[in-house]
């Protein structure tokens, strides 16, 4: 069985962006909608998945999640979303 490692960015009702890691984007998005995904998305309800990217290893995915969350500005995140 192939491992799936994804980084994704969600748009919230408050027009904020949320970045996360998962092995199943649709299942994780559903968890966010049900208020079970993360503290942030309990308060900032997700509206849609704006971007997702698959990685070969969990390590690669987690490094990219960290980079997006902690190194990129909102403008840079939007550029990333629009470039792919």
Outline of this structure?
45% of the residues lie in helices and 29% in strands. The chain is built from four helices and three strands, in the order ββααβαα.
Could you state the CATH homologous superfamily?
GIY-YIG endonuclease
Radius of gyration: 12 Å
Quickly give the CATH architecture: 3-Layer(aba) Sandwich
Described by strand count, sense and barrel closure, the largest sheet is:
3 strands, antiparallel
- The counted number of beta strands is 3
Structural class: alpha+beta
Mean pLDDT across all residues, rounded?
96
Approximately what portion of the residues adopt beta-strand conformation? 25-35%
In the CATH scheme, the class would be Alpha Beta
| Count of domains | 1
Strand order of the largest sheet: 2-1-3
Regions with pLDDT < 50 over 5+ consecutive residues? none
Distance between the termini: 27 Å
The total count of helices amounts to: 4
Briefly note the CATH topology name: GIY-YIG endonuclease
Shape: globular
Order of helices and strands: EEHHEHH
What does this structure look like?
By secondary structure, the protein is an alpha+beta fold. The chain has a single domain (5-83), classed as GIY-YIG endonuclease (3-Layer(aba) Sandwich), CATH 3.40.1440. Helices cover 45% and strands 29% of the residues. The chain has 4 helices and 3 strands; from the N terminus they run ββααβαα. It has a 3-stranded antiparallel sheet, with helices on both faces. Strand 1 (5-12) and strand 2 form a beta hairpin. The relative contact order is 0.23. The mean pLDDT is 96.
